[in-house]
Amino acid sequence: MHAIVRDCIDAGALAAAMRSDACGAAIAFAGAVRDRSGDGRTVTGLTYEAYEPLALSEFDRIAREAVERFGPCEIAIHHRVGELRVGETAVAVAVAAPHRAVAFDACRYCIDELKARAPIWKKEHYGDGASRWIENDCAEPDRP
Amino acid sequence: MKVKVLAFARLRELLGGDRFELDVRDGATAEDAWAHLAERCAGLLPLAGSTRIARNGRLLSDRAEPLSEGDELAFLPPVGGG
Fold it and tell me: Residue A134: its chain B contacts at CB < 8 A?
């Protein structure tokens, strides 16, 4: 199921746990902390925070939408909060489906919608000691 | 009446804390609660248009609906997850 977690995320293990005999496809997207910001600054780490009850209900809503759009599949969305170092996994979307097309489509939909909608925030920390809150380009305040 | 306020990310930093109790008049709305906070912290004003509000865990589409005693309002700046 979906979760906001404080420890390391193993996206591969999440996908493996999703599989069942009815599912020929199991995939995982893992979003990790990069060492560069969008404008080329050296990033040393990120801090994430979430409004957990709403984030979890949003994960659930997004996953249901993916099933409606693309077909039956099992979806798990995990997002980490707290301090993360470069290279650590911040978010994982794992999908198991009878066939690969549904799995890929649903996974893409879930990560895109999560970035636009889920009440989760990230602060970038830079090599020079500065930091700033980063808004996703796709985030639309008036989007339902 | 009293309502609870949760603030996140840059709003939390501007307000100097993540949880508050606000004393508002009976019949006050989420918009009124925001105005209370903005009085306390002028730095909030530029964020008015981009801040979403959740009431008791649900995003508000109508900020003009009257609140109830003990409601929890969460003020949500533009998101950056993933």
Answer: 80
